[in-house]
Design a protein that fits this description.
globular; about 230 residues; alpha/beta; seven-stranded mixed beta sheet
Amino acid sequence: MNRREFTNIAKGWEFIENAALVNESDDLTRLREQAGETGFTPGSASQADFLAFEARQLDARSVIILGTGAIMESLHLMAGLDRLPDADARQLTVVDSLAAGASAIREIISGMRFDVRLRIVNAKADVFLPRLNDDDYDLVIISGDEQNYADAYDQAHRLLRAGGVLMLCDALALENADSRGGLLNPSDRCGKATRMRQLIDFAMADERFSSSVVPIGTGMILSLKLPEQA
């Protein structure tokens, strides 16, 4: 591609993000403003919208998201699951290692009426995830700080049912306080940028999953759990 084509792609990415913001419901727009007041910067609107889309596409009954103040992501997931039949039989588990993050999500979501069951856990991922049952989730989402991504694939493979999906957000490592351009800057060697470079390579080589890196929000790695070979 030449420079003009790359520039057009960047503009298209901006257009898609703005379209997602414009098409958020009035309630979600109001809550996005409220979320910004908690001290946790709301993430990409197109990413949050895609998380909800994937939950609906999978007809997911059990979803878990690990984040750091992932308020809008959790709200979009709740809204998306609430639109499915038997919403009261579906569950979203939100895991946040920061007490302030878990508290902010709980407070903001409490103002919405959803039939979906919500479980909010203040715990570190490496402590909480090993306690969960095997083959019990349709969708596992990892976002936030670098430590949330540690051992993500091994834990997700155990937790997901065959045909379930692992979604790793911020694959470009742009939503990071230490970022100096993330994966867009080859010289950025901050912890998260280094981790995401490793995870992209690992995902594409892991034969337990079928994986793809997609340009949504700040980049995502999608990994579909394959049935075990007989």
